[in-house]
């Protein structure tokens, strides 16, 4: 899409884009890190186990080159001797190979972590295209690999020549040493050379690792349109979300209107607000708001209340206080207990009067309903 609409990839990849890339096997990798890790650990392993490995090889050759005539023509005896000779080198080689395996595994997964992807392993025709191959040969990645190769050759050559120049005295010393002292000395010099040359390649790793991370982030960058499209896919289109919210509000309003007939009283601010309260001493510890609304919704609450002969009491300050302080299906706050209690007492007396069981109560005045200042609206 970015190529069609001319947009540039200027935005950092989103977490979803990174996760999709990881599932496809697109993670930053540094071949230099893996190869240098194997070389350095291999050099260290040879320094640690080289002596025991050398002695095991010498013992193996001593046994195999000092066979008697009877041992040569005795197949059973020859097999046992060969097995015993080879057994001496098994453990040193095993330790060296184990260290190399661990170094290769850690070096390969240190950047990008462990990732298994069947999609990355699946053959792709685009990789077999000659044109694509030519593009890759002259692409930016190929030039970077060429520069790294030149740097590695120059670095290894420079370090090797410096080490040889710095070890001239040791080379001269080898001429006057006797066998096998000179052999061990030469091997020690050689192993030090190998370790230092391998460690010099860490300079290449220090350059390659940040470059691979940067290149990976550049490849995953997105256009602004791609981010918008992804947001629509994950969050849904705004029109659809708006429609869903509208349907949810309508369903909530229908459920709320169905609860109005269960109310004991509807408090109104005649112009704008209506709040329906229920108080059943068997199930409610305090009065509960079963419905509330403003403007058109407030009018519908009053109409339903009138249809079901529910008492409607105009009390603007109290109606506003309950409307703003209490949500649906919640009990009224403690600060309004006294005012609501007086209101319910008035409603109870009014119902008794309508049944002919008492005198008509005096209308409630706003001043009679104590409303805390923090709950006034």
Automatic annotation (TrEMBL):
UniProt-listed GO biological process terms: bacterial-type flagellum assembly; protein secretion
UniProt-listed InterPro entries: FlhB (IPR006136), T3SS_substrate_exporter (IPR006135), T3SS_substrate_exporter_C (IPR029025)
SUPFAM superfamilies linked: EscU C-terminal domain-like (SSF160544)
An annotated GO cellular component: plasma membrane
Signal peptide annotation: none
Key words, A-Z: Bacterial flagellum biogenesis, Bacterial flagellum protein export, Cell membrane, Cell projection, Cilium, Flagellum, Membrane, Protein transport, Transmembrane, Transmembrane helix, Transport
Membrane-related topology note: Multi-pass membrane protein
Native organism: Grimontia celer
Transmembrane portions of the chain: 33-51, 72-91, 97-121, 142-165, 189-214
Region (Disordered): 1-28, 356-377
Compartment(s): Cell membrane
Function: Required for formation of the rod structure in the basal body of the flagellar apparatus. Together with FliI and FliH, may constitute the export apparatus of flagellin.
Protein name as it appears in the record: Flagellar biosynthetic protein FlhB
Record-stated family: Belongs to the type III secretion exporter family.
Matches recorded under PANTHER family: FLAGELLAR BIOSYNTHETIC PROTEIN FLHB (PTHR30531:SF12)
């Amino acid at each position: 899409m970015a190529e069609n609409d001319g947009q540039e990839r200027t935005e950092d990849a989103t977490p979803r884009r990174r996760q999709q890339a990881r599932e496809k096997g697109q993670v930053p990798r540094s071949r230099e890190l893996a190869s240098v890790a194997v070389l350095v650990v291999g050099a260290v392993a040879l320094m640690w186990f080289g002596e025991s490995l050398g002695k095991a090889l010498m013992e193996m050759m001593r046994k195999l080159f000092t066979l008697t005539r009877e041992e040569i023509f005795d197949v059973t005896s020859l097999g046992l001797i060969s097995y015993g000779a080879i057994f001496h080198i098994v453990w040193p080689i095993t330790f060296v190979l184990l260290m190399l395996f661990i170094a290769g595994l850690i070096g390969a997964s240190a950047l990008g972590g462990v990732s298994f992807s069947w999609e990355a392993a699946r053959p792709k025709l685009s990789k077999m295209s000659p044109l694509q191959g030519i593009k890759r040969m002259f692409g930016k990645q190929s030039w970077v690999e060429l520069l790294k190769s030149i740097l590695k050759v120059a670095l290894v050559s420079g370090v090797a020549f410096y080490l040889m120049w710095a070890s001239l005295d040791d080379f001269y010393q080898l001429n006057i040493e006797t066998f096998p002292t000179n052999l061990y000395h030469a091997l020690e010099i050689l192993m030090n050379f190998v370790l230092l040359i391998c460690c010099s390649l860490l300079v290449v790793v220090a350059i390659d690792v940040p470059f691979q991370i940067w290149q990976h982030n550049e490849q995953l960058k997105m256009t602004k349109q791609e981010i918008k499209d992804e947001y629509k896919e994950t969050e849904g289109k705004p029109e659809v979300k708006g429609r869903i919210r509208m349907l949810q509000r309508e369903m909530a309003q229908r459920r709320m209107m169905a609860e109005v007939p269960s109310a004991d009283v509807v408090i109104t601010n005649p112009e704008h607000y209506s709040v329906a309260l229920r108080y059943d001493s068997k199930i409610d510890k305090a009065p509960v708001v079963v419905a509330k609304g403003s403007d058109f919704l407030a009018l519908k609450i009053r109409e339903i209340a009138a249809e079901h002969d529910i008492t409607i009491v105009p009390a603007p300050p109290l109606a506003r206080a309950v409307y703003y302080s209490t949500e649906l299906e919640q009990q009224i706050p403690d600060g309004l207990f006294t005012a609501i209690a007086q209101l319910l007492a008035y409603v109870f007396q009014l119902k008794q009067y309508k049944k002919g069981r008492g005198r008509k109560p005096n209308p409630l005045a706003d001043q009679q309903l104590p409303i805390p200042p923090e709950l006034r609206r």
